[in-house]
Amino acid sequence: MAVVSYFPISLPPEAREGFEKTWKNRVGAVDTFPGFISTELLALPGRDEYVVLTRFEDEKSFEAWITSDNFTKGHRGESFDSYKDNPMMRNHKLFDVLG
Ligand code: HEM
To answer: Contact 30/54 with Cβ under 8 angstroms?
Structure first.
């Protein structure tokens, strides 16, 4: 069953333009990872909240990605482990795609 990772991000106004630019020029490592389907950055019109939606073929391939060097490469050297204590991670959810 496909899964969608829902990752909401709130940033102070001064950090938003830089984040959007960074995302537009993202590394693109995940694009070749087995099981990856798509990823997109959504933003509320007022830019007071972003959501990164990332779709994988199944939970197993998503878990394999977040624990891989590919995740670290896609995050410019930051591994998933290094993010564990980041308060933003508390809002991350993994949804099953039912249809
Ligand atoms: C489960 C948690 C997370 C998921 C599913 C996720 C998902 C993604 C994906 C799919 C990419 C694109 C990677 C690529 O192009 O290869 C990405 C890049 C990025 N993520 Fe995450 N991410 C997570 C955690 C975080 C955290 C905790 C932060 C910051 C606090 C973050 C900040 C970024 C930034 C800044 C980029 C762009 C990196 C660049 O190209 O310079 N991510 N993320």
So the answer is: yes
Q: Is the CB of 30 under 6 A from ligand 1?
A: yes
User: 0.85 exceeded by the pTM?
Assistant: yes
> 37 CB under 6 A from ligand 1?
no
Tell me the sheet residues that pair with 39.
Answer: 54
**pLDDT for residue 17:** 96
Residue 85 DSSP code:
T
Residues sharing a CB contact under 8 Å with residue 26, sequence separation 6 or more, in sequence order? 74
Atom of ligand 1 nearest to the CA of 19: 35
Q: Where are the alpha helices (DSSP H) in 1-99?
A: 13-24, 59-66, 69-74, 80-83
Structural domains of the chain, with CATH: 3-96 (3.30.70.100)
